TrEMBL record:
One of its GO terms (cellular component) is ubiquitin ligase complex. This is Uncharacterized protein. Coiled coil: none annotated. Residues 1-25, 52-79 form the C3H1-type domain. The lineage of its organism: Eukaryota, Fungi, Dikarya, Ascomycota, Pezizomycotina.
Length: 884
């Protein structure tokens, strides 16, 4: 029997049912313990455990499926040979056993032992008890072990310090300590090039020297160089904070005839692209005339061709209706043996008479004569593709050009990638262009929008059912969808010629990749005990496994994200909320002496229950202990009941000491659910959250959250670390977002928001050169935008578009002049002045403006000084008559 090739690769899933032979060399098989699942054990989560049975063998361990490890109640026998086990026991007693020594008793090493097992990283792990592939050592025991052991590992358990860097509106933003935007970068700020022809052994420093020798001056700290060395060549990927660097480098190397060459590589965090075009043209076809002596046969054959019951070389062809020609000879009685004719069109150009005869399967439909017409053109697909490539290269440099393999379709297809998006759009002008080589046949050229989203493979599997359903809809919209799995991550790609359809599909993929934040009543579900890999985190992973979903923990944002079917969201929310409630309640234990135990049995436990409430105190008659699951006050109150104190004393203990927290400086009432700032001023939590959210609009200068204590005179500026301590994660992220939005609003000359409704992405403004601005396409909605005049004017220059548009705006200009409405000279927001002085403040960008000459100032004092010096006053001279 033939060997199973999949078994040799370790990927056969048929087991004993496989029809091919599974042969394993027992001499080279590694002695290995059963592989535990990647998911944490739940044995350590039980409160009351039964006594361990050391005599009953765990049946799941024998199958390699036990997930409880050392916490299992049943016996886990050793799978090593007795001699090896004895040697290990002896070494263990001497304190010298090691992992390497344990494996020293193996036979010859299996050749597959060094290849990582690809199933180990999947949900549930590898299920083979004697898997021949490598199971890399990972710290899964940290998730399965006792919480006390895990918490001792400070490196793993400590909550990662937030660096206050966020991705918002397609940009990477870093906030400083007070919440102000410190650094903002966009993908378009950088350019990247792949440099080839580099000598082996070249270092990064030498590459920097080469670039400087070419006349490039750049900051080394913002430059990233990655060397790739193979047997055939050495190349480097250079990324510089200069949008024109890659293209300029390629041009300089080419002009200097250097042995080096450079190819620009696009940069985009969203992996969206508009640089690809599809080109197609009709394959060569011909017409064929079929002659019949009987009209019924002619009609029948024509109908079968039109219904695709008859195909020529696998291609559907069209047939005309049967036509009758006049008979031969004298008069109406003349006889014509081929009086009925049908014409076949779209017949493959390479078809012969024998191919046409073979297409007519029935012997009763055989024509009496077949006349073949000439092919529409005679050159090969490869020859045509050469001419097409020449036409494309007139519009820009190509990164790749691929002629699709011959298929059964009626068109020849080519895909081409341009180095620049503008070149790809320019190449679309070739659409419907006739080519002489095609016999005046026309090309079809379409710009392809494509987008990629990279997600963890576990997240893709959790959403697979929904993705498969969406893919059916995408196919109906003529979109192509592919999944590229790559170990722990998978790349989801969608592309098509319709911008709206691709954007709609991309939004769905983004929803899948971002997941849903678990919230209860508008508040994120979170607890500080989830910051470490303790018991609570272990129970969280058990819930994840039971529901077959993914629950992602973000320590920096203090959030849990849910990935999976929507119908399981509420179930996951309920289970996690219940688990956190149980884990967050501390347990206090009271050991009962004989007198107190007797008092408990005679009704004392009921007295404690009446004082503390139900489900707080639990009496264990076996161990003679009482467990108090609650607060320190409830524990002290239980002791007070046992000591026989009065109800008033017990009530004071439960209520706790009354502490006057002070009045809230926002609502001037006694602080409710108070928080205390570092300056010792006390706020209501709700008032504090509202003040933080409004800080962006109330800050006179740059963003900051200022303490409002001491009647607003407190100089303390609250830091982001302090805000994160007091605010919920959702409110904290809202504060950061409002700081970012205010930063953009105050810089309209530098940044603008995409004008497409509900897009939300930003772009950097540019100055048009030669009347045209650099081409830019929003990476979220794929709409082309002019970054100079902020309009969509296609191939028109800014001046041409403004000239076309000006006619319709003349009436609006006159109306605005009559209503005393002017546009802000900084951000073009319309403003109306109805009364007051000539100093105006733009509500959008906060610019201080002189209404007379529309000069812009950073502060109001210079504006007033300007009005007095230049205009002779601030515009309130008409009020003097009331004073006089």
């Amino acid at each position: 029997m033939t060997l199973c090739k999949y078994f040799q690769q370790g990927s056969c899933r048929n087991g004993e049912a496989c029809t091919w032979r599974h042969e394993r060399d027992t001499n080279t098989l590694r002695y290995a313990e059963p592989v535990a699942s990647c998911l944490p054990a739940i044995g350590g989560l039980c409160i009351n455990r039964q006594a361990r049975s050391n005599t009953i063998v765990c049946k799941y361990f024998v199958q390699g499926k036990c997930t409880k490890g050392n916490e299992c109640d049943y016996l886990h026998p050793s799978t090593r040979p007795p001699s090896q086990q004895a040697q290990e026991d002896a070494l263990s007693r001497n304190g010298s056993v090691s992992r390497q020594h344990t494996n020293s008793f193996q036979g010859p090493q299996d050749s597959r032992a060094g290849i990582p097992c690809r199933y180990l990283s999947l949900p549930g792990g590898c299920q083979k008890s004697l898997c021949p592939f490598l199971h890399a050592e990972k710290n899964y025991e940290a998730e399965r072990g006792d919480a006390r052991d895990v918490e001792a590992d400070e490196d793993d358990d400590q909550e990662h310090e937030d660096d206050f860097t966020r991705s918002l509106a397609g940009a990477s933003i870093h906030f400083n300590g007070s919440g102000e935007v410190d650094k903002l970068t966009l993908p378009a700020d950088y350019s990247r090039a792949c440099v080839t022809g580099i000598a082996a052994g070249t270092t990064n420093e030498q590459i920097v020297d080469i670039l400087r020798g070419l006349g490039f001056e750049f900051d080394v700290h913002s430059t990233h160089i990655l060397l790739h060395t193979t047997l055939s060549e050495t190349k480097a990927t250079v990324k510089v904070k200069d949008p024109h660097f890659a293209k300029e480098l390629a041009t300089r190397l080419k002009n200097q005839h250097s042995t080096l060459s450079a190819m620009p590589i696009p940069i985009d965090t969203r992996q969206a692209s508009c640089r690809k075009v599809y080109i197609s043209w009709h394959k060569a076809t011909k017409s064929v005339w079929l002659n019949f002596g009987n009209g019924n046969i002619a009609y029948r054959v024509a109908e079968k061709f039109n219904k695709s019951e008859y195909k020529c070389l696998g291609q559907s062809v069209k047939s005309s209706i049967a036509n009758q020609s006049k008979g031969r000879g004298r008069g109406a009685l003349g006889y014509n043996p081929v009086a009925w004719t049908i014409t076949l069109s779209d017949v493959p150009g390479c078809a012969t008479q024998e191919d046409v005869k073979a297409a007519i399967a029935s012997s009763h439909d055989t024509p009496r004569h077949i006349e073949m017409g000439p092919a529409s053109y005679s050159v090969s697909d490869a020859e045509v593709s050469v001419e097409v490539r020449k036409l494309l290269e007139k519009h820009g440099q190509l990164e790749s050009f691929r002629l699709a393999p011959a298929s059964g379709g009626k068109r020849v297809k080519v895909s081409a990638w341009f180095g620049e998006e503008a070149d790809a759009r320019s190449a679309c002008s070739l659409n419907n262009q006739s080519l002489d080589i095609l016999g005046k046949g026309k090309l079809t050229v379409a710009l392809v929008q494509s987008a990629k989203v990279k997600v963890r493979t576990t997240i893709y599997l959790a959403w697979k059912k929904r993705i498969d359903e969406e893919a059916k809809t995408w196919r109906q919209e003529h979109l192509t969808f592919h999944v590229y799995p790559n170990g722990s991550h998978s790349t989801l790609k969608v592309e098509g010629s319709s911008t709206k359809d691709v954007v709609r599909a991309l939004k769905i993929l983004n929803e899948i990749s971002e997941g849903v934040v678990l919230t209860d009543g508008g508040t994120s579900v979170w607890s500080s005990i989830l910051g470490s890999n303790g018991v609570a985190y272990g129970r969280l992973k058990v819930i994840e496994k039971e529901l077959q979903v993914v629950i992602d923990r973000s320590r920096s944002k203090r959030q849990l994200r849910f990935y999976g079917p929507p119908e399981k969201y509420q179930q996951a929310l309920h289970l996690i909320s219940t688990m956190l409630e149980e884990e967050c309640r501390p347990t206090y234990e009271i050991k009962l002496d004989p007198d107190h135990f007797a008092w408990m049995m005679k009704g004392g436990s009921k007295s404690i229950e009446r004082a503390l409430g139900t489900d707080v105190a639990v009496l264990d008659v076996v161990s003679k202990k009482m467990a108090i699951r609650g607060t320190q006050q409830q524990y002290d109150a239980a002791l007070a009941v046992m000591e026989g104190r009065t109800e008033n004393e017990i009530r004071k203990i439960l209520d706790g000491p009354f502490v006057l927290e002070g009045d809230c400086p926002i609502c001037f009432c006694e602080a409710d659910a108070h928080i205390q700032a570092s300056c010792k001023h006390t706020y209501c939590l709700e008032c504090f959250e509202g003040a933080c959210q409004a800080a962006a609009s109330t800050s006179k200068g740059e963003f900051q959250v200022k303490c409002q204590g001491a009647d607003g005179t407190c100089p303390t500026i609250l830091s982001l670390k302090e805000l994160k301590t007091h605010l919920s994660s959702s409110v904290f992220e809202t504060v950061l977002k409002s700081s970012f939005e205010e930063y953009i609003r105050r810089r309209p000359e530098t940044f603008r928001c995409c004008p497409t409704p509900d897009c939300g992405y930003i772009y950097r403004c540019t100055i048009a050169s030669d009347g045209k601005s650099p081409p830019y396409t929003c990476r979220n909605c794929f709409e082309p935008i002019c970054t100079s005049c902020h309009e969509r004017h296609g191939d028109y220059s800014c001046a041409e578009y403004k000239d076309i548009k000006s006619g319709g705006y003349e009436a609006l200009r006159r109306l605005k002049s009559e209503l005393n409405i002017k546009d802000c000279p900084k951000c073009t927001t319309p403003m109306e002045k109805t009364e007051g002085c000539n100093h105006m403040t733009c509500v959008a960008c906060k610019a201080d403006i002189c209404w007379v000459c529309m000069s812009v100032f950073e502060e109001r004092e210079p504006c007033y000084a300007h009005m007095r010096e230049v205009h002779g006053g601030i515009g309130l001279d008409h009020l003097r008559r009331f004073v006089d």
